[in-house]
Amino acid sequence: MPNSPVSEPDFGLADIPPNPPVHFAEQALLGGLLLEPHRIKTIGPLGPDHFASANHRALFAAMAALTAPSPDLHAKEPVWITAVLAHARPHARGLTPSYLHALAWACPDPAHTPTYARMVRSDHARRTVLMHAGLLVQAATDRGLPDPAAVTLSRTDALAALLDHLAGSFPSHPGSLPRTPPPAPPGCQEGPEVASEEQLLLSTATAYPEALASMRWLRPEDFTVALYGGLYRCLASLASRGEPVDKVTVLWEAQQNGLLTSAFGPQDALELLDAPAGSPEHWGEQILRRALLRHAHLAGLHVQAFAQDLTNSPHQVITGSRRALAHLAGVRARWQHAKPTAGCPPVPPVPASRAGPSHQRTSAPAASPRSSR
């Protein structure tokens, strides 16, 4: 596999890179292949990209491209080490003959090269999972993307496909779940407009409760403000029981569910529920999109934690990562079910007498009516 020229200084065995175990496994593997080049046929599927070190990638690419000398010639002349160095040097100019000799000394036993190769494959799998998890976290938190949800789901699919591919390469074993402590959920870093949109959903759904029947894809836990999630539960409960839905019935339901406190009293609830704008489906989709991104962010953090823990075997990383993505699947299914509402029929404009601008609790701009969406 061709590599771009990389200028790196020569280093000895005492120089410790970020991942010492795999570094020494790579050295032992390459040293074994320098001592007994025919063993490259015994190491199983391995490519230059499996190596963490650029110098090691260049050396293995050279070994894979060259034809090993006969055993008799290899025993008499250093033709193999000379040819490998000449082939690899244009791609890693820091390589020196002394480093190749150091690699040979670093190999305890050339007969163990299949085991060293398995170590290299395992660490490459861990690094690859870690990279894909980082891309998922980045997509889920980058609000500058034109369609964060689509990019996030694409990154999720890429990570899931990688895990499926790796699952066939590493055998299962007892204790398949990683023991890595799960990371704490990231704190909410949303701006005040998020709470404003959740308020608008509550007030607009109170004004147009018929929309709740088609919004079963939205759940109270999707809200960033627990109080607003509780109020939505009250709305949905009233609608599911076929009872009247208006700001007074919702207020009563909120009282029955213990949502009214000294900080959020009856008048606060009535004012919040009396400022509808736009359509419930629009605000619901906004809320669910953010919930999807939050779950994807947390799933990516879980996978990162599994892959960063060097005590986890590849099978443990794969199993734990799949479980983390499974928790995201439910929110994803609800998001995909919610998307068709973009073409829902328009609702009547909000009467001016019900807009209540004098006591509206949110500073968010009024959304366009459904007819303009």
Q: Can you tell me about this structure?
A:
The protein has 373 residues and is mainly α. Helix content is 56%, strand content 0%. It is built from 14 helices and no strands. The chain has helices at 20-35, 54-65, 71-76, 79-88, 97-106, 113-141, 148-167, 192-207, 226-240, 247-256, 266-272, 280-308, 314-338, 352-355. Helix 1 (20-35) runs parallel beside helix 2 (54-65) and helix 7 (148-167) runs parallel beside helix 12. The longest helix is centred in the middle third of the chain and has 29 residues, at 113-141. Residues 1-17 and 341-373 have low confidence and may be disordered.
Topology, element by element:
Layout: H1 20-35, H2 54-65, H3 71-76, H4 79-88, H5 97-106, H6 113-141, H7 148-167, H8 192-207, H9 226-240, H10 247-256, H11 266-272, H12 280-308, H13 314-338, H14 352-355
Helix pairs in contact: 1-2, 1-5, 1-6, 2-4, 6-7, 6-12, 7-12, 7-13, 8-9, 8-12, 9-10, 12-13
Question: What key attributes describe this structure?
Answer:
373 residues, disordered C terminus, 56% helix, disordered N terminus, mainly alpha
